[in-house]
Write a structure and sequence with these properties.
Length: 162
């Protein structure tokens, strides 16, 4: 084949392969492409939450340490939650947790319930988890909250008891 013809053939082939712009993809962008993990909505299994990196880290920590008391079912079966008095809030309970500041959540998770005059059955994690890990688990709880969590328009005071 003459080199000219070969060039022409290649050009035609390239055009054909590129589709000449005739077919436009109608596929929806896959939300999972930008998510590190998903968590089903605990109050509506048909709905999924797509988790960013920090929230996905928090999920891992939550299912390791917290699920036993802050969920109704665990990877090992029914949870301990209903045996506790007071009964710990479900981790997705926005009506209980949305009004509490990140500072407050950080405090109770770091120092334990007794440090903030809550049940001492809430263990302190300040020596088990780093502050980044505690922030990640808070991010996970915020991400799965129902009703959804709205961050405050302005950051609250640095120290708060609620
Ligand atoms: C052994 C059971 C247990 C485990 C494990 C546990 N918690 Fe708790 N948690 C409690 C109890 C009990 C309370 C206090 C409820 C009260 O006094 O109203 C509580 C309270 C809380 C609160 C405050 C909620 C409120 O309504 O004031 C947060 C936030 C929290 N826990 C997060 C966590 C996180 C995050 C983990 C894992 C790192 C965890 N808990 C592990 C039992 C537990």
């Amino acid at each position: 084949m003459k080199p000219r013809r070969l060039c022409l053939l290649l050009a035609v082939l390239a055009l054909a392969l590129s589709g000449c712009g005739t077919k436009k993809s109608t596929a929806q962008p896959d939300p999972l492409l930008h998510a590190y993990d998903v968590e089903p909505d605990w109050s509506n299994p048909d709905h999924l939450f797509y988790l960013n990196y920090q929230q996905a880290q928090g999920k891992r920590i939550f299912y390791d340490k917290c699920v036993w008391c802050h969920a109704d079912s665990t990877p090992a079966g029914p949870s301990n939650r209903s045996n506790l008095n007071p009964m710990p809030a479900l981790a997705n309970d926005g009506s209980a947790l949305n009004s509490l500041s990140d500072d407050y959540l950080r405090n109770i998770i770091t120092l334990g319930g007794s440090a903030v005059s809550k049940s001492a059955m809430m263990p302190p994690y300040g020596k088990t988890l780093t502050q980044d890990e505690i922030q990640a688990v808070i991010a996970f709880m915020r991400a799965i909250a129902q009703p959804p969590y709205q961050p405050p328009a302005r950051p609250g005071p640095q120290y708060s008891t609620r």
